[in-house]
Amino acid sequence: MLQDHDGAWYSPHLVERAIRRAERAQAKAEQAQRLQALHARQEAGEFAPTASVKAMTSRDNVAKGGRPRKGETPEEANARRASEAVQQREMRLHTPVASAPMRETGNQNQFSKVVSVSGDLGFGSEIPVSVDLESEKHISPSNSGSTKPAETETAKPNAGVSELLIAQTVARVMTLGKQPESQACFAKSICGRFLRDGVPPDALAEAVKRHTEKMALNGDTPQKMGVFKKPIEQFWAERQAGCIESEPEQETPREAWEAQAMAEYAKGMEIWRDAFSHHRDFTAVTRAWPDLAERHGLPSCPFDKDAYLDWHRPRVCAA
């Protein structure tokens, strides 16, 4: 039991029940009113005989501008819809822009007339422009008012590269880059583009050779011709800038044990790649690697470049 401001005692539970009872009665009354209104509009032919009350309320909500927003009372929703309707009716539209009048319209011959461009389009004076199609073919770049540089007859410096030269260069690049036959068409496209840009065949071959050797040091093998695009561009830019000599510098020869370690590591790379392609499990290949290495005559150490070098590095015995 609770006591109100006047000192009267009341039961909150009974009050809540009375409030819910009144709300249910009001909802039933509103539902009966909506059903009666639907019957009246059905008799007037506004709705089909099989239409429900929801169809009528949906149409009414659409006419009012939708349901009330979150936290908005019905009175606030009605006021907002009324103001939006007024703003929609009083919305200002953009004024139409009048086009510039035509100064000359008598174009009897569409192939050999002169049209005057009026000053209303932003020019200070009338400029006669010829539209003779036959004469337009022979206009030189110096007579045009364009700010673009005149195009030369040959768009590329070496457009006349023979197919024989391209084929020979492709064969050299494919051999040096250890590319499969499926990359022949890509090699022809890449070599042809660089040859037409003025890159000599020897520079192309040297760039591919250097990048292939660089990848081999990391135990990698180029699989596609696309990996040589950037190295060729960088090599040719350095050659033109004088950063590198025309002939490749001789690298320091490796010792016998180091060469043997790198040869066995390259052989192990192919075996590892085949085993991984078969099992598709890195852990399984790692566990089976000692047996695979012994079967192919390789060291039983873990498959790693540093491990192979340590395996073949000479040991210094203490005296």
Outline the secondary-structure elements.
Elements: E1 2-3, E2 9-10, H1 12-43, H2 53-64, H3 74-89, E3 114-117, E4 127-130, H4 133-136, H5 163-176, H6 184-196, H7 201-217, H8 229-241, H9 256-279, H10 282-295, H11 305-312
Antiparallel strand pairs: 1-2, 3-4
Helix pairs in contact: 5-6, 5-7, 7-8, 9-10, 9-11
Which overall shape is indicated by the principal axes computed on the Cα atoms?
elongated
State the end-to-end distance: 104 Å
Count of individual beta strands: 4
**Uncertain runs with pLDDT below 50, 5 residues or more?**
117-127, 129-158
Question: What can you tell me about this protein's structure?
Answer:
The chain is mainly alpha-helical and 319 residues long. Helix content is 52%, strand content 4%. It has 11 helices and 4 strands. The protein has helices at residues 12-43, 53-64, 74-89, 133-136, 163-176, 184-196, 201-217, 229-241, 256-279, 282-295, 305-312; strands at residues 2-3, 9-10, 114-117, 127-130. The strands form 2 sheets. The protein has a two-stranded antiparallel ribbon with strand order 1-2. β1 and β2 form a beta hairpin. α9 (256-279) runs antiparallel to α11. The chain is elongated and about 110 Å long. The protein starts with a strand and ends in a 7-residue tail after the last helix.
From the structure above, extract its key features.
319 residues, mainly alpha, two-stranded antiparallel ribbon
